[in-house]
Specification:
Elements lengths: L1 H17 L6 E6 L6 E6 L2 H12 L6 E5 L9 H6 L5 E6 L23 E8 L9 E8 L3 E8 L3 H40 L1
Parallel strand pairs: 1-4
Antiparallel strand pairs: 1-2, 3-4, 5-6, 6-7
Protein name: Cell death activator CIDE-A
Keywords: Apoptosis
InterPro entries: CIDE-N_dom
Length: 196
Protein backbone atom coordinates (compact mmCIF):
# COMPACT_ATOMS: atom_id res chain seq x y z
CA UNK A 1 0.00 0.00 0.00
CA UNK A 2 2.88 2.35 0.70
CA UNK A 3 4.15 1.82 -2.85
CA UNK A 4 0.80 2.93 -4.34
CA UNK A 5 0.86 6.18 -2.38
CA UNK A 6 4.35 7.06 -3.55
CA UNK A 7 3.45 6.28 -7.18
CA UNK A 8 0.32 8.46 -7.03
CA UNK A 9 2.24 11.33 -5.46
CA UNK A 10 4.86 11.04 -8.22
CA UNK A 11 2.12 11.12 -10.86
CA UNK A 12 0.54 14.15 -9.23
CA UNK A 13 3.81 16.05 -9.04
CA UNK A 14 4.59 15.22 -12.67
CA UNK A 15 1.14 16.33 -13.76
CA UNK A 16 1.50 19.61 -11.90
CA UNK A 17 4.86 20.31 -13.52
CA UNK A 18 3.53 19.67 -17.02
CA UNK A 19 0.55 22.01 -16.76
CA UNK A 20 1.22 25.58 -17.91
CA UNK A 21 1.21 28.20 -15.17
CA UNK A 22 -2.16 29.87 -14.76
CA UNK A 23 -2.62 33.52 -15.68
CA UNK A 24 -3.20 36.04 -12.88
CA UNK A 25 -6.85 36.97 -12.43
CA UNK A 26 -8.34 39.98 -10.62
CA UNK A 27 -10.18 39.64 -7.29
CA UNK A 28 -11.70 42.08 -4.82
CA UNK A 29 -11.21 41.57 -1.09
CA UNK A 30 -12.86 43.41 1.81
CA UNK A 31 -12.58 43.28 5.58
CA UNK A 32 -15.32 41.84 7.81
CA UNK A 33 -16.98 45.24 8.35
CA UNK A 34 -16.77 45.90 4.57
CA UNK A 35 -15.15 49.32 5.11
CA UNK A 36 -11.83 48.47 3.46
CA UNK A 37 -11.86 47.08 -0.06
CA UNK A 38 -8.84 46.35 -2.25
CA UNK A 39 -8.24 44.73 -5.61
CA UNK A 40 -5.63 42.03 -6.16
CA UNK A 41 -4.43 39.85 -9.04
CA UNK A 42 -3.37 36.33 -8.18
CA UNK A 43 -2.65 33.02 -9.86
CA UNK A 44 -3.35 30.78 -6.86
CA UNK A 45 -5.05 30.77 -3.48
CA UNK A 46 -1.70 30.91 -1.67
CA UNK A 47 -0.63 33.89 -3.79
CA UNK A 48 -3.85 35.77 -3.02
CA UNK A 49 -3.69 34.98 0.70
CA UNK A 50 -0.08 36.19 0.85
CA UNK A 51 -0.98 39.47 -0.89
CA UNK A 52 -4.04 39.99 1.32
CA UNK A 53 -2.05 39.30 4.50
CA UNK A 54 0.59 41.83 3.49
CA UNK A 55 -1.91 44.48 2.43
CA UNK A 56 -4.25 44.20 5.42
CA UNK A 57 -1.40 43.53 7.92
CA UNK A 58 -2.74 40.15 9.03
CA UNK A 59 -0.65 37.08 9.84
CA UNK A 60 -1.24 34.38 7.20
CA UNK A 61 -1.79 31.70 9.88
CA UNK A 62 -4.81 33.55 11.32
CA UNK A 63 -6.37 34.38 7.97
CA UNK A 64 -9.57 32.90 6.52
CA UNK A 65 -10.88 33.80 3.08
CA UNK A 66 -14.61 33.51 2.36
CA UNK A 67 -16.86 34.47 -0.55
CA UNK A 68 -18.38 37.81 0.43
CA UNK A 69 -21.87 37.09 -0.90
CA UNK A 70 -22.62 33.87 1.00
CA UNK A 71 -19.72 33.23 3.41
CA UNK A 72 -18.45 30.04 1.74
CA UNK A 73 -14.94 29.28 3.01
CA UNK A 74 -12.31 29.18 0.27
CA UNK A 75 -9.79 26.66 1.58
CA UNK A 76 -8.83 24.51 -1.42
CA UNK A 77 -7.00 25.42 -4.60
CA UNK A 78 -9.52 23.55 -6.77
CA UNK A 79 -12.45 25.55 -5.39
CA UNK A 80 -10.47 28.80 -5.77
CA UNK A 81 -9.67 28.05 -9.42
CA UNK A 82 -13.35 27.25 -10.13
CA UNK A 83 -14.42 30.76 -9.08
CA UNK A 84 -14.68 33.42 -11.80
CA UNK A 85 -12.46 36.49 -11.99
CA UNK A 86 -13.58 39.55 -9.98
CA UNK A 87 -15.14 37.33 -7.30
CA UNK A 88 -15.66 39.43 -4.15
CA UNK A 89 -13.96 37.87 -1.11
CA UNK A 90 -13.98 38.74 2.57
CA UNK A 91 -10.92 38.29 4.77
CA UNK A 92 -11.54 37.15 8.34
CA UNK A 93 -9.06 37.16 11.19
CA UNK A 94 -8.99 34.50 13.89
CA UNK A 95 -12.23 34.60 15.91
CA UNK A 96 -14.21 36.61 13.32
CA UNK A 97 -17.25 35.18 11.56
CA UNK A 98 -18.91 36.08 8.28
CA UNK A 99 -22.05 38.22 8.52
CA UNK A 100 -24.42 39.03 5.67
CA UNK A 101 -24.45 42.52 4.25
CA UNK A 102 -26.95 44.92 5.80
CA UNK A 103 -28.16 45.63 2.28
CA UNK A 104 -29.65 42.11 2.01
CA UNK A 105 -33.42 42.37 2.15
CA UNK A 106 -35.79 39.70 3.45
CA UNK A 107 -37.07 37.35 0.75
CA UNK A 108 -40.72 38.38 1.22
CA UNK A 109 -40.00 41.98 0.14
CA UNK A 110 -39.16 42.89 -3.43
CA UNK A 111 -36.11 45.16 -3.68
CA UNK A 112 -36.69 48.63 -5.03
CA UNK A 113 -35.10 49.06 -8.40
CA UNK A 114 -32.87 52.09 -8.57
CA UNK A 115 -32.70 52.25 -12.35
CA UNK A 116 -32.71 50.43 -15.63
CA UNK A 117 -28.99 50.03 -16.22
CA UNK A 118 -25.78 50.32 -14.25
CA UNK A 119 -22.36 50.60 -15.86
CA UNK A 120 -19.12 50.09 -13.94
CA UNK A 121 -15.46 50.24 -14.89
CA UNK A 122 -12.66 48.41 -13.02
CA UNK A 123 -9.01 49.16 -13.75
CA UNK A 124 -6.34 46.70 -12.64
CA UNK A 125 -2.82 45.60 -13.56
CA UNK A 126 -1.66 42.06 -14.20
CA UNK A 127 1.92 43.04 -13.42
CA UNK A 128 3.05 46.02 -11.30
CA UNK A 129 5.54 46.99 -14.04
CA UNK A 130 2.84 47.30 -16.71
CA UNK A 131 2.53 50.76 -18.28
CA UNK A 132 -1.25 50.57 -18.56
CA UNK A 133 -3.45 48.06 -16.85
CA UNK A 134 -6.54 46.21 -17.95
CA UNK A 135 -10.10 47.45 -18.01
CA UNK A 136 -13.22 45.49 -17.10
CA UNK A 137 -16.51 47.00 -18.24
CA UNK A 138 -19.57 45.58 -16.51
CA UNK A 139 -23.16 46.45 -17.46
CA UNK A 140 -26.13 45.39 -15.33
CA UNK A 141 -29.66 45.69 -16.72
CA UNK A 142 -32.66 45.79 -14.39
CA UNK A 143 -30.36 44.48 -11.62
CA UNK A 144 -30.81 40.99 -13.09
CA UNK A 145 -28.84 40.61 -16.31
CA UNK A 146 -25.10 41.21 -16.25
CA UNK A 147 -22.70 41.56 -19.14
CA UNK A 148 -18.99 42.15 -18.69
CA UNK A 149 -16.07 42.60 -21.05
CA UNK A 150 -12.39 42.49 -20.18
CA UNK A 151 -9.98 44.65 -22.22
CA UNK A 152 -6.32 43.82 -21.76
CA UNK A 153 -4.08 46.73 -22.72
CA UNK A 154 -0.87 44.72 -22.83
CA UNK A 155 0.42 46.25 -26.09
CA UNK A 156 -0.36 49.87 -25.21
CA UNK A 157 3.27 50.65 -24.38
CA UNK A 158 4.42 49.32 -27.78
CA UNK A 159 1.66 51.30 -29.55
CA UNK A 160 2.55 54.52 -27.70
CA UNK A 161 6.26 54.05 -28.49
CA UNK A 162 5.46 53.54 -32.20
CA UNK A 163 3.23 56.60 -32.20
CA UNK A 164 5.96 58.74 -30.63
CA UNK A 165 8.55 57.44 -33.11
CA UNK A 166 6.31 58.31 -36.07
CA UNK A 167 5.64 61.77 -34.58
CA UNK A 168 9.41 62.30 -34.19
CA UNK A 169 9.96 61.26 -37.82
CA UNK A 170 7.25 63.68 -39.01
CA UNK A 171 8.80 66.49 -36.92
CA UNK A 172 12.23 65.83 -38.47
CA UNK A 173 10.67 65.80 -41.95
CA UNK A 174 8.85 69.10 -41.29
CA UNK A 175 12.11 70.62 -40.01
CA UNK A 176 13.95 69.57 -43.19
CA UNK A 177 11.18 71.03 -45.38
CA UNK A 178 11.31 74.34 -43.47
CA UNK A 179 15.11 74.45 -43.64
CA UNK A 180 15.17 73.79 -47.41
CA UNK A 181 12.34 76.27 -47.99
CA UNK A 182 14.09 79.02 -46.04
CA UNK A 183 17.31 78.41 -48.05
CA UNK A 184 15.43 78.89 -51.32
CA UNK A 185 13.71 82.03 -50.01
CA UNK A 186 17.07 83.51 -48.95
CA UNK A 187 18.55 82.73 -52.39
CA UNK A 188 15.55 84.29 -54.12
CA UNK A 189 15.82 87.45 -51.98
CA UNK A 190 19.61 87.57 -52.65
CA UNK A 191 19.03 87.25 -56.43
CA UNK A 192 16.40 90.05 -56.32
CA UNK A 193 18.81 92.42 -54.52
CA UNK A 194 21.75 91.68 -56.84
CA UNK A 195 19.67 92.21 -60.00
CA UNK A 196 18.36 95.62 -58.89
Amino acid sequence: MWCCRSVSSVQTSLALRMLPPSQPRPYRVCTRNRRKRKGFTATSLADLMEQVAGSFSITCQFLTLVVEDDGTVVDTEAFFQSLPANTPFMVLEKGEAWTPSKLVLPSFRQPRRSGIAKLSFDLYKLNPKDFLGCLTIKATLYEIYTLSYDIKCTRAKYFLKSLLQSFLYMAKLAGQVLLRGSTYVLRYIGDEESSS
